[in-house]
């Protein structure tokens, strides 16, 4: 009853955070037997492993469920939203973090965080649109933009993070990387 009315993904996220805080904060990791060892192993997994094993099947599943005829008609709008739309969103987010947060973060760190936060994930919105019987064109627009904006955000993050680490980039390198 405590989580009634919340979406399943939100409940799982909250339970995961609470469980992690309890296990790490109190130090119960080692005293819970197999569960504690399992938790410890999950915390040591390389995040790239999760990214490269979980993301492709999710993206492929979404891509296979899209109506290709509709997708061809709205492809330009999807590219516009997922390309310049995500770049502008990341830039505005980075600028907000740089100007308004009291931490005096370097601008490249703000750009890196802006790239992480800029990609929207409208899975719940698409499910709701399908359930309510909304226009298939609108549903495919949102679904297509969702598929493409993840890629744009990953490219933005990679460029910003590499620049933060000190790798030199000139504008030609950045544009070449963004066009890949």
UniProtKB/TrEMBL annotation:
This is Cation/H+ exchanger transmembrane domain-containing protein. GO terms for biological process: regulation of intracellular pH; sodium ion import across plasma membrane. Keywords: Cell membrane, Ion transport, Membrane, Sodium, Sodium transport, Transmembrane, Transmembrane helix, Transport. The keyword Membrane applies. The chain crosses the membrane at residues 48-66, 78-99, 105-129. The keyword tRNA-binding does not apply. PANTHER family: SODIUM/HYDROGEN EXCHANGER, SODIUM_HYDROGEN EXCHANGER 7. GO terms for molecular function: potassium:proton antiporter activity; sodium:proton antiporter activity. Signal peptide: none annotated. Its main location: membrane. InterPro entries: Cation/H_exchanger_CPA1 (IPR018422), Cation/H_exchanger_TM (IPR006153). It is a multi-pass membrane protein.
